[in-house]
């Protein structure tokens, strides 16, 4: 009878510790997922902010400006580090959409720097700005979908 009590006590202890470890593991996994989702959202926000602020700076200097002024305006809001951070943290669909938006912004930068293109309603401006604007809208949609899916 003494053995039966000992075996029962030991079995209960093993089951108790095992179930506690299982529950703790699930909780830690859930918390890690929540932290990763939050970090991803913050990365998305930093990139979108850098895109918007960089575009605004480029529009400000788009009145015929020197190439150095254009480059300074482009670099002022840390768009490249935000882009690289996004490429590390985002799923492939978001990275692809970000690549399109980033490329569109570079096209605007290059057009302003090389041709002195001024922001406005000219056909030349529309030719570089409309694709960028479409790429940014697509990026926002893909980011929103990524957040909703939790990926």
Annotated CATH topology: Four Helix Bundle (Hemerythrin (Met), subunit A)
Instruction: Characterize the main sheet.
Output: none
- Number of strand elements: 0
Q: How many angstroms separate the termini?
A: 55 Å
Strand content: under 5%
Tally of helical segments: 5
- CATH C-level category: Mainly Alpha
Count of the separate structural domains: 1
Provide the residue-averaged pLDDT. Answer: 85
Shape: rod-shaped
**Gyration radius from CA atoms, angstroms:** 26 Å
What does this protein structure show overall?
- This protein is an all-alpha fold and 151 residues long.
- The protein has one domain (37-149): Four Helix Bundle (Hemerythrin (Met), subunit A), CATH 1.20.120.
- Helix content is 87%, strand content 0%.
- The chain contains five helices and no strands.
- It has helices at 2-61, 67-75, 79-89, 92-115, 123-149.
- α1 packs antiparallel against α2.
- The radius of gyration is 26 Å and the shape is rod-shaped.
- The mean pLDDT is 85.
Reconstruct the topology from this structure.
Blueprint: H1 2-61, H2 67-75, H3 79-89, H4 92-115, H5 123-149
Characteristics:
rod-shaped, single chain, Four Helix Bundle (Hemerythrin (Met), subunit A), mainly alpha, 5 helices
Give me a quick take on this structure.
The protein is an all-alpha fold and 151 residues long.
């Amino acid at each position: 009878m003494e053995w039966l009590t000992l075996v029962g006590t030991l079995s209960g202890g093993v089951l108790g510790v095992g179930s506690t470890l299982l529950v703790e593991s699930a909780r830690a996994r859930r918390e890690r997922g929540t932290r990763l989702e939050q970090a991803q959202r913050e990365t998305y926000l930093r990139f979108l902010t850098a895109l918007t602020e960089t575009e605004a700076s480029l529009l400000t200097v788009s009145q015929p400006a020197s190439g150095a002024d254009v480059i300074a305006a482009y670099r002022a809001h840390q768009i490249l580090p935000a882009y690289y951070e996004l490429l590390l943290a985002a799923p492939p669909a978001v990275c692809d959409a970000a690549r399109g938006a980033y490329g569109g912004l570079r096209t605007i930068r290059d057009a302003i720097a090389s041709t002195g293109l001024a922001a406005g309603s000219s056909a030349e401006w529309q030719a570089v700005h409309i694709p960028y604007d479409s790429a940014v809208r697509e990026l926002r949609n893909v980011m929103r979908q990524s957040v909703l899916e939790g990926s």
